[in-house]
Amino acid sequence: MRAERITGRVAYHGEGAWWHGGWGGLRFVDMLHGAVLQLTEGGAVSRFPVGDPIAAMIRPAVDGRALVALQRAFALFSGGGGLGDESWRTPPVIAMDERFNEGAVTPEGDLICGTIRDDRRERSASVWRLRQDRTIERLFDGATISNGVGFTTDGDRMFYVDSRTRRIDVFDWDGDPHDRRSYVTIPDGAGSPDGLCMDAEDGVWVALYGGAAVHRYDRDGGLTEIVEVDARQVTSCALGGADGRTLFITTSRENLDDGDDPQAGSLFAAEVGIAAAAPRIARIGP
Hints:
Distance between the termini: 42 Å
Strand order of the largest sheet: 1-24-23-22
Largest sheet: 4 strands, antiparallel
Mean pLDDT: 96
Number of strands: 24
Oligomer: single chain
Order of helices and strands: EEEEEEEEEEEEEEEEEEEEEEEE
Strand content: over 45%
Radius of gyration: 17 Å
Number of helices: 0
Shape: globular
Low-confidence stretches: none
């Protein structure tokens, strides 16, 4: 299957794609340029600066609000008038040489998000949780490039990517992660696992940075689908659209010369045969 390019080069480093009907469809971030982007019904892309040089991801919160992971903090936006007004922002959570990257809403309605060190030092990054009362805790250490996170429909398992390992791992989940083990190892030459999303059959769709593709793995780790993308640096994916069966795919121009990989930084989409998992809303309000 090959994805279709549906926009021009709208992002330097597109990331964090998520579909939510309550905010009007697909949103993603131009990470490093500090903006949230929204795909309109007509196919245009609106851009909303968040007042921070890095916006790592965006996820839906209660009452149509939007929860954004910034460079070193979390912020809640009202959702009105595009992204809307900023309701609150936490103090900085992590060190100056570290930034937030990717995460997910937990079955309980908290937000978890991992980090990356600027120097990509081995096992120096971590994964954090923002609870509904806005308290923040470190879930675990020992990551290098913390990336995609997703949960099964029953909330019993958490899938997790540390890109440097070239694996998707799985934890058992009972409100906390435990019993980590390997779920899938990405073959050499296929790219590095990046962002991921889940479908209604507990399939894992994972973006392959450097691999020009998204792979789908079933509940048992079997490769069932390859979606080819006409840009190498594939960063995140999200299922959405009217019937939940459109796979939206973000890409990056980071570290590319202007003439290299000309479609990088565009948004792509493919019609797939499996619907998105039911959305989870962060129960973190004003």
